[in-house]
Specification:
Order of helices and strands: HEHEHEEHEEEHEHEHEEHHHHEHHH
Number of strands: 12
Distance between the termini: 76 Å
Structural class: alpha/beta
Helix content: 40-55%
Number of helices: 14
Length: 344
């Protein structure tokens, strides 16, 4: 039996089919290296996924894979977004050493004021000076964590002299250089490796922010923390990025691209920085409540000595950028001015 459709019926059928395609749910695979209880999983990425679902009337959904559940290692996350193994990732730019040399400027010692302001500055800086580093992806956010601390096992760090001979974990290339200038022996590794490295004596301590430390059992594996005076610029921070697979973004209809665009950029970066650093408060409370644990607050006068010991790192970075064809001093000036403009 043949069924003939009138032109009107045919048009209605086509419109219904088109509406069905338009309303189809698209699920984004989101991948990161921390656990399912981490604030990065539950709040930072969780809220972003909730927002894009709301703004798209649930046509955009997420499936978040924590703790490298899609395979690979943390340094491979950026390539997973680039190659489409994941649609969106959250990762440390510096885990791919030398890949984002301009972006890492915010990891220089005593550069950061606070995470929210510096995250806004980092987004603007990348948009202005470093988008060539992200040409293979759709960049959604750039942010930093709160002020870093130094956690140690067998002896406290109170003065510059205390760094000598200590093997300390560092997250990125510039933090490695900073620790070496302070007199320590730097050991680079992604943060998930810290508990095992501490327990096996591979390292004597680690530089990390308070927020992630309890989840790594650092309060059980160390006895001391050197906490720089919070009214001084931060000893260090780490640059995080949220790249999206470019082909996946390009495949979205325009209205869903607009949803992604609305939920990315400067304010998303600021939210990530603010949220992550806000978790420093309960993180610190864990250490304060741990029996026998010592929190040593490093005063400004001592931090000034640390600043002088690491001061040449800024010049070395600027010289390196100039050799790569950029004006390193101008980049430093731009980053500092951006941070200043957002710091209240």
């Amino acid at each position: 039996m043949k069924i003939r459709l009138t032109p009107l019926a045919f048009s209605l059928a086509m419109m219904t089919a088109s509406a069905g395609v338009a309303a189809q749910t698209i699920t984004l695979k989101v991948h990161h290296f921390l656990g399912p209880q981490s604030i990065q999983h539950t709040k930072m990425l969780g809220d972003w996924c909730a927002n894009i679902a709301k703004d798209s009337s649930n046509r955009l959904q997420c499936q978040i894979f924590p703790a490298m559940q899609l395979g690979g290692s943390p340094p491979q996350l950026f390539d997973q977004a680039k190659d489409g193994v994941a649609d969106v990732v959250w990762t440390v730019a510096g885990y791919s050493a030398g890949r984002f040399p301009k972006s890492e400027i915010f990891e220089l010692p005593f550069m950061m004021t606070n995470a929210e302001s510096t995250s806004r500055a980092a987004w603007d800086f990348v948009q202005k000076h470093a988008m060539d580093e992200y040409s293979q992806v759709k960049l959604l956010a750039v942010h930093v964590h709160g002020p870093g601390n130094i956690f140690t096992k067998s002896k406290p760090i109170k003065t510059l002299a205390d760094f000598k001979g200590m093997k300390l974990r560092a997250p990125t290339r510039l933090t490695n250089k900073m620790l070496a200038m302070l007199g320590a022996t730097p050991v680079g590794m992604p943060v998930p490796q810290v508990p095992e490295a501490l327990s096996k004596g591979v390292i004597d301590g680690a530089v990390i922010p308070y927020e992630v430390a309890p989840g790594l059992r650092v309060h059980e594996l160390t006895k001391y923390v050197a906490e720089p005076d919070r009214s001084f610029e931060a000893l260090y921070t780490t640059v995080f990025i949220v790249p999206m697979n470019k082909a996946k973004y390009d495949s979205l209809p325009n209205d869903l691209k607009a949803v992604i665009d609305k939920n990315s950029g400067r304010e998303f970066s600021a939210f990530l920085g603010r949220t992550q650093s806000g978790n420093d408060v309960p993180g610190r409370a864990t250490f304060a409540a741990t029996q026998g644990y010592t929190i040593n607050q490093i005063p400004k006068a001592e931090l000034e000595k640390w600043r002088q010991a690491t001061d040449r790192l800024d010049d070395e970075w600027a010289e390196e950028m100039s050799k790569r064809g950029s004006d390193g001093k101008a980049l430093l000036s731009s980053a500092r001015e951006l941070i200043k403009s957002y710091t209240k």
